[in-house]
Design brief:
By secondary structure, the chain is mainly alpha-helical. It has one domain (about 1-195, about 225-415): Growth Hormone, Chain: A (Up-down Bundle), CATH 1.20.1250. About 80% of the residues lie in helices and about 0% in strands. The protein contains 20 helices and no strands. The protein has helices at about 1-30, 35-45, 50-55, 60-65, 65-75, 80-100, 105-115, 120-130, 135-155, 155-190, 215-225, 230-255, 260-270, 270-290, 295-315, 320-335, 340-350, 355-360, 365-385, 395-415. Helix 5 runs antiparallel to helix 18.
Length: about 425
């Protein structure tokens, strides 16, 4: 009887996983969607580079700030209730964004979206920890990150076609409705733990969790560890590149500097999604099977990002189209997918009893990087004025790419100070 119940739990957990994985697709879609419609939004809302940068980054501020509360709500209220409620919030924000009469209402809408979808990642990790064994956790996290790559892809080419068909405003309304439907599916079908359905836990054989550590004590343990800060800095600068270029300014750059259509720019940006989808399992394989270490993979990825951002800066206007595809593929792999190794490193730095707190704290920094640098790049573009056709200047984009090149170098420097956390087998 117990064996039959366990078999049911082992089957049902996959339904739960794929519902939450679809939710993560939506999280990444909302995160990166401004890039291909940025020009449409700028014209329709009469926004300059600074305001457009603030609009793009408005997602990231609440997302970053809500990472620690996400862990608290997951522990106290439960992942199912938390995700359902906040996906409803994201639905409202997406509709407000789509119907915004001006840029300030649009910023408010995108802020609400960021607040809503902030409550998916950490609660999902808690659900995975309840339904999957310890040895399965890394694989499931890698698949989840790959699903984020699908969300990144949907925010590029598919959104470009959808916005050409029904406009960027109605596109966000449709996406909001789909977000609401996913929230309803979470409420109807997801359960926080097998015990909620009267089933035994597949994780019970893994042993005791260890002594409980309070929230503030856990926070103090994390931020007082010197080895935490190079990892936090690496996340900050690496993800600043990904979110700033792929998530917002890459679209205007490709359309204005290279004269590409919105659909063509979307095709190129979508290669970042392929990089994430392929890169998550590939980099995990390199870390686990080839190097048998975390740090060399992070350093290697950071070197590639230094090369990629350097190419964009030094050859701003002279990059062949095929190389633009490879650049976006590389950004997706070496500043997007590589965060899987970063999160694994962070998990291995701290005891299991404060894994949620450690994840919430380190997850603050990539989104802070996106929030800060999207605005900075918008201000840099504004500082160089506009062309006669109303677009941003080549010099403005070149200064932006210099900023990203500096981010790449700082991420590389940070990677050398990381602590190796993978124990020899």
């Amino acid at each position: 009887m117990q064996g039959d119940a366990l078999k049911k739990a082992l089957r049902y957990r996959w339904l739960i996983f794929w519902i939450l994985a679809l939710g993560y697709v939506m999280v990444y879609f909302h995160r990166l969607c401004p890039a291909v419609v940025a020009e449409d939004m700028r014209r329709d809302l009469a926004a300059g580079g600074g305001l457009l940068g603030l609009l793009g980054s408005a997602y990231f501020y609440p997302y970053a700030l809500m990472q620690l509360p996400a862990g608290l709500l997951s522990d106290s209220w439960g992942p199912r209730k938390t995700i359902t409620l906040f996906f409803g919030v994201a639905f409202a924000g997406s509709v407000i964004l789509g119907m915004a009469p001006n840029v300030y209402v649009a910023i408010a809408g995108r802020t609400i979206v960021g607040l809503g979808v902030a409550m998916l990642f950490v609660p999902t990790l808690k659900v995975l920890a309840e339904w999957f064994r310890v040895k399965e956790f890394a694989m499931m996290t890698g698949i989840l990150m790959a699903m984020g790559g699908i969300g990144s892809y949907s925010a590029a080419t598919p959104l470009a076609y959808l916005s050409n068909w029904i406009g960027w405003r109605q596109s966000f309304v449709v996406v909001g409705i789909f977000t609401l439907i996913l929230g309803a599916l979470v409420w109807a079908l997801v359960r926080d733990r097998p015990a909620d359905m009267g089933w035994p836990s597949p994780t019970e054989a893994s042993g005791a969790e260890g002594e409980s550590i309070g929230l503030m004590q856990g926070v103090k343990m994390v931020i007082s560890l010197p080895r935490f800060w190079p990892l936090a800095g690496w996340f900050f600068f690496t993800c600043a590149i990904f979110f700033s270029f792929i998530g917002l300014w890459g679209g205007p750059f490709l359309m204005q500097i290279y004269g590409l259509t919105k659909a063509k720019a979307g095709h190129i940006l979508s290669l970042a999604a392929i990089g994430m989808i392929v890169g998550s399992p590939f980099l995990s394989f390199l870390s686990n099977q080839v190097f048998r270490a975390r740090k060399p993979v992070v350093i290697m990825a950071s070197i590639f990002m230094g090369i990629i951002t350097g190419m964009l800066y030094f050859f701003t206007q002279g990059i062949p189209t095929f190389l633009l595809y490879l650049i976006c593929l590389g950004i997706g792999m070496f500043s997007g997918a590589v965060v899987t190794i970063g999160f694994t490193t962070n998990k291995e730095l701290f005891p299991v009893s404060i894994a949620g707190t450690a994840t919430g704290l380190v997850n603050f920094f990539p989104f802070l990087g996106g929030a800060v640098f999207q605005v900075i790049l918008g201000a840099v573009l504004d500082s160089q004025g506009l062309t006669v056709s109303g677009g941003f200047t080549q010099q403005g984009f070149r200064y932006c790419l210099l900023v990203l090149f500096c981010c790449g170098l700082l991420a590389l420097i940070s990677s050398f100070f990381l602590k190796e956390t993978m124990k020899p087998s």
